[in-house]
Amino acid sequence: MNRTIILSVALMTALLSCTSKQEKMENRMRSFISSYEEQIIPLYKESALTSWEANISGTDEAWSRNENASVAYISFFTDRAAFAELKELKESGLVKDPLLARQLDLIYNQYLSGQIDTSLISEQVRMETEITKKFNSFRADVSGKKLSDNEVEDILRNSVRSAELQAAWEGHKMIGPVVADDIINLVKHRNRIAQQVGFSNFHQMSLQLSGQDPEEVTMIFDELDSLTRGTFATLKGEIDNYYAKRYGVPASELMPWHYQNRYFQEAPEIYSVDFDRYYTDRDPVKLASEYYASIGLPVDAILAKSDLYEKPGKNQHAFSTDIDRSGDVRTLDNIRPDSYWMNTILHELGHGVYSYYNDMTLPFALRDAAHTFTTEAVANYFGRLATNPAWMNYMGIISSEEAEKIGDDAFSAFRLQQLVFSRWAQVMYRFEKAMYENPDQDLNQLWWDIVEKYQMMKKPEGRDMPDWATKIHVALYPCYYHNYLLGELLASQFSVYITGTVVKGNTAEDMKSMGEFFKTSVFMPGARYQWNEMIEKATGEKLTAKYYASQVLGED
């Protein structure tokens, strides 16, 4: 037989054999997914529903139901036989179909984090539930009055009396000693879980299993620090001069309670524009609903199932939740008629539309955001609109003349807000990273060392309190905060791309085009692509800090 023919036959045989093995492995993956979805969907839904009920009611019974549901959901991923099957499929390298391969990666990571004793998972959920209950029931004791977080913020934002400010700030910080020991125990517990599956600590595990390289994230944060440190230092000097005059104290004696919020995470109001006054007689929910409808992303179905206003026992913060990845999307808020809550409802509904307008034909595992920070980017993009004069004019909140009048101050406020927030995000990221690396160190000192370095805010003399423990995210939303800043980077990248490519003005057609861009290029792909692949497909570039830097430094 001709040698060429012999080689061709051999090659064909090898290819057929390889194809046969590939088909076998991919069919095994399909079978796994079918069984997986049958079991995980009801567990996911029950966990989400009980969490919702607990957060809106605050009752012990509701939290107990949620604890049980959470344990059941998390424990599902401890199945060692299922993980062994996934491990074999992954290590074979033969699951090549793009949708199957992507599901394999995502589901594998879920199971990897669950390859620990069920008792450890149950204990983690129990610890988290107890801490949650303490946060939700805590009210600051300020001069004999029990105050909510909103009421503390009101004092910090509006009072000009240093003694009153200090009392409110210190009253809020008393949640620290209540939860600090619990949080340290929880951190150590999470580290034990991470070490069981081969990671040095929980922080490293959290980033890597979400598809992030910890070194890359740190590099981005270092770059942003370098780009913004000088500008922030200059603006911090302006802030301090403003407050020195406002409170009648030397700039050198300004304390954390002088910065108009509990953590100096929001820009102080040092410019003449007062956004709150534009919303005093407005309904943020109605405005948000009208806006999202105008861009072709109506939110009526989301709002109908949401819990929007303050009530006793309810979670005092805000979040969006996707109950079933099949259209039951809700948002929890504590709406007041001011710019903060206008931003918040736009932000949370940004999360909401990302989930609601996902492609429901995708498999369950892919009916999610490309990454948690990509949904933050969308939420940030829309949240920024609350203090954007052009948007406020578009919504009929202010006239075109007023928009022009406040334009410069509005940009200065935006710039300051982003710089202030980026420094706060530096604190959270670097504190959490260091805390999980060594939870036995002096965390009180660590916190203030980082605050002083990145926020340039002084620790009150002689203070030795667990102020780090007062930020709920440290305990209950661990290793997540850096995603808010990455979300801001991507929000700026979206903004520049949309302005330059998608829309040319403020016409109804332009608004629909923007909504369609988000729907088709960001929402509907879900988790089909790795996050940077989605970003590149949507904007033509992978994630970069250059657009954020140019916006906040006023260079674009």
Describe the structure.
This protein is mainly alpha-helical and 556 residues long. The chain has two domains: 3-115; 140-278 and 362-556, Neurolysin, domain 3 (Orthogonal Bundle). Helix content is 67%, strand content 3%. The protein contains 23 helices and four strands. The strands form two sheets. A two-stranded antiparallel ribbon has the order 1-2. A two-stranded antiparallel ribbon has the order 3-4. Strand 1 and strand 2 (145-147) form a beta hairpin. Helix 8 (175-196) crosses helix 9 and helix 17 runs antiparallel to helix 18 (443-454). It is globular and about 80 Å long. The mean pLDDT is 93.
Task: Give a concise summary.
This protein is an all-alpha fold and about 550 residues long. It contains 23 helices and four strands.
